[in-house]
């Protein structure tokens, strides 16, 4: 309305007129201005958090990234960067996440530089130790430097307080894996239902047209059958 745009189709005229009357009240303008200032002042003036992970949980994205990397799990620094990066611009939009990632990356670089110096000093003993931090060491770095607020760490959610160094394998609770699989199955079932509905509509339209133009249109050539179904349909 303030941008001189037309009424949205989803609103009837009475609701539209009611909204316009409401926004012309001085009290409404005062509330809107106060809320705007409050939003901008959150998190030390950095505003409201900007999320780029969608509806996926940290554990779900961790499972996906592990699969994408051929079974190699990401460390939590990589995971945080992935979940806070805008996939279109390739930039970390949220200022808090951007500052935190910069701090963690600098700490990681400093520790790896220390490792390199240490190994150079002991090079004469034939040591071949890596100058890179392991996944567990990076995860521990995240744990030690990301503060807890309301039981959660910014960017990675709820985590255990200790990182096991006995294995580099990804640890995700079995319940999270089950929930993720159930969600994927639900989405697959929904897609199948949509496809079946489209096929039913196509059959109806095909039958209607073939009745109108029996000589010019052959229904048997366009109706979907088992031969044109995908392997997924035949398997399930």
UniProtKB/TrEMBL annotation:
<keyword id="KW-0175">Coiled coil</keyword>
<feature type="region of interest" description="Disordered">
    <location>
        <begin position="216"/>
        <end position="236"/>
    </location>
</feature>
<protein>
    <recommendedName>
        <fullName>Transposase</fullName>
    </recommendedName>
</protein>
<feature type="coiled-coil region">
    <location>
        <begin position="97"/>
        <end position="124"/>
    </location>
</feature>
<feature type="compositionally biased region" description="Polar residues">
    <location>
        <begin position="217"/>
        <end position="230"/>
    </location>
</feature>
<dbReference type="Pfam" id="PF03004">
    <property type="entry name" value="Transposase_24"/>
</dbReference>
<feature type="compositionally biased region" description="Basic and acidic residues">
    <location>
        <begin position="56"/>
        <end position="67"/>
    </location>
</feature>
<feature type="region of interest" description="Disordered">
    <location>
        <begin position="39"/>
        <end position="67"/>
    </location>
</feature>
<dbReference type="InterPro" id="IPR004252">
    <property type="entry name" value="Probable_transposase_24"/>
</dbReference>
């Amino acid at each position: 309305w303030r941008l001189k745009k037309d009424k949205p189709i989803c609103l009837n005229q009475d609701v539209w007129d009611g909204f316009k009357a409401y926004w012309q009240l001085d009290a409404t303008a005062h509330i809107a201005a106060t809320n705007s200032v409050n939003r901008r002042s959150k998190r030390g003036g950095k505003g409201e958090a900007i999320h780029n992970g969608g509806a996926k949980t940290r554990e779900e994205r961790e499972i996906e990234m592990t699969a994408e990397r051929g079974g190699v799990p990401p460390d939590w620094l990589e995971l945080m960067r992935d979940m806070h990066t805008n996939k279109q611009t390739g930039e970390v939009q949220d200022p808090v996440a951007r500052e935190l990632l910069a701090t963690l990356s600098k700490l990681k670089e400093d520790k790896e530089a220390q490792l390199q110096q240490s190994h150079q000093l002991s090079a004469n003993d034939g040591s071949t130790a890596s100058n890179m931090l392991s996944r567990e060491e990076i995860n521990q770095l995240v744990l030690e430097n990301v503060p807890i607020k309301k039981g959660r760490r910014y960017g990675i959610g709820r985590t255990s307080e200790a990182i096991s160094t006995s294995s580099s394998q990804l640890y995700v609770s079995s319940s999270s894996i089950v929930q993720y699989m159930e969600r994927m199955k639900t989405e697959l079932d929904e897609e199948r239902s949509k496809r079946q509905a489209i096929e039913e509509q196509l059959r109806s339209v095909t039958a209607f047209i073939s009745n109108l133009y029996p000589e010019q249109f052959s229904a048997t050539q366009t109706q979907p059958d088992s031969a044109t179904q995908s392997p997924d349909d035949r398997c399930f």
